[in-house]
Amino acid sequence: MPFVPDPSDAELAQSALRDLTAALGKEGPVHLRFAEGADVVVPRSALTALTQILSTFAEGEGVTVLPAQAELTTQQAADAMRVSRPYLIGLLESGKIAYRTVGTHRRVPAASLVAYMREDEAKRRAIADELAAETHDLGFA
């Protein structure tokens, strides 16, 4: 289910992000206290996920939360990657992203899609770093 922030949410998300990031730097369980006085203990991993969501909201972008075991249609997977469905199908058929077939339909495990996206991002960053280093070595920076 996609969550799309209101334009006014960006500033509030930035403020909350600062406080939660500070809490992440500490040891032990995380206690969240609400204005009504309720105190909730949250796993540190959940707080990490919340900071990622808030960071995305602060940029005015929406998020979609999926269980790791979820399976996506090819259109949902393409939308998550912000690519066309034919491009995604090419990735599936080349074996770069795992999928299974249900009847005549392909289903993409969310975990496989996320793993590919992380690997692709790491490759992109490495190439950008190489280009930046080469630019610096040539005296352009």
Write a concise keyword list for the protein shown above:
2 domains
Walk me through this protein's architecture:
The chain is an alpha+beta fold. It has two domains: 63 residues, no CATH class; 67 residues. The protein is built from five helices and seven strands, in the order βαββαββααββα. The strands form three sheets. Strands 5-7-6 form a three-stranded antiparallel sheet. Strand 2 and strand 3 form a beta hairpin. Helix 1 runs antiparallel to helix 2 and helix 3 packs across helix 4. The longest helix has 28 residues. It is extended, with a radius of gyration of 20 Å. The mean pLDDT is 88.
Question: Can you describe this structure in just a few lines?
Answer:
The protein has 141 residues and is α+β, with helices and mostly antiparallel strands.
Count of domains: 2
Total number of helices: 5
Helix content: 40-55%
The termini sit apart by 44 Å
- Low-pLDDT windows of residues: none
Main sheet summary: 3 strands, antiparallel
